Amino acid sequence: MRYFFGNLFFLFSHLAFSQLITNFNAFQVSKTVVLKLTWNVGASCSGYSVYRSTDSLNFTSIYDYAGICGSSPGNSVLTYIDQYPLMGYTNYYKIQLSTLESSDIKKVLVSANPNSKLQVFPDPVFQNVETLNLRLLNINGNSIVGNIFDRYGTPLKPLSFYTTTGETSINVNGLHNGLYLIWLTDGTQLFASKFVIAR
């Protein structure tokens, strides 16, 4: 009988806390990543952990808080700043509230130059990577032309593509180790960035 009530208590307590987290967001600010987590009115937790990954599968704890969090009359908001995200890569984040609930996974492409209108990643390009991903900020549905130049300004590869999302990938398999400049335009704006190949 005690076993039955113990399992029933676990089931009800798990159901009661299954919807603690109401919102989780992650975004880059300067060269850091800000994580904001909101959970329900009156709910509390006995600590939380922040996890980061570069592949969305294998997470490592980057911060553990062992104190009491939450239990305010309104929704509780937790803010954590990752001071050392992995630059030039997509960083995946999740937050675990004690043993009660884990947030969804959020991804943030962390640009080494967040003020640029053109973000390139990964940078540097290592090992067997054959594509360079481009993200053009504040542009959608435009025809883009440009070129990749070596460090001396010699044009090496003409580029021409249409983007509906502001993102595309280009093949850099034929480029040797070194520093390169990518220059793009939509006819009204100029986008430029450097990247390194180090295979």
Write up this protein.
- The chain has 2 domains: 2-109, Immunoglobulins (Immunoglobulin-like); 118-198, Immunoglobulin-like (Sandwich).
- It is built from 1 helix and 18 strands.
- It has 199 residues and is mostly beta strands.
- The longest helix is centred in the N-terminal third of the chain and has 16 residues, at 2-17.
- Strands 4, 5, 8, 9 and 10 form a 5-stranded antiparallel sheet that branches. The protein has a 5-stranded mixed sheet with strand order 12-18-17-14-15, with no helix packed on it. Strands 1-2-7 form a 3-stranded antiparallel sheet, with no helix packed on it.
Short summary of the structure?
The protein is mainly beta. 8% of the residues lie in helices and 53% in strands.
Question: What topology does this entry show?
Answer:
Layout: H1 2-17, E1 21-29, E2 32-39, E3 44-45, E4 48-53, E5 60-65, E6 69-70, E7 76-82, E8 90-97, E9 101-102, E10 106-109, E11 118-121, E12 125-126, E13 131-136, E14 142-150, E15 155-163, E16 167-171, E17 178-185, E18 190-198
Key terms for this structure?
199 residues; mainly beta; Immunoglobulin-like; 18 strands; 8% helix; 53% strand; disordered N terminus
Number of domains: 2
Strand content: over 45%
Low-confidence parts: 3-18
Query: What's the overall geometry?
Result: elongated
Going by CATH, the homologous superfamily of the largest domain would be: Immunoglobulins
Q: CATH architecture of the largest domain, please?
A: Sandwich
Helix/strand-derived category reads: mainly beta
Mean pLDDT: 82
Q: Work out the radius of gyration.
A: 22 Å
Helical content class? under 10%
Under CATH, the topology of the largest domain is which?
Immunoglobulin-like
Number of strands: 18
Biggest sheet layout: 5 strands, antiparallel
Number of helices: 1
Helix-strand string: HEEEEEEEEEEEEEEEEEE
Q: What is the CA-CA span between the terminal residues?
A: 65 Å
**CATH class category label of the largest domain:** Mainly Beta
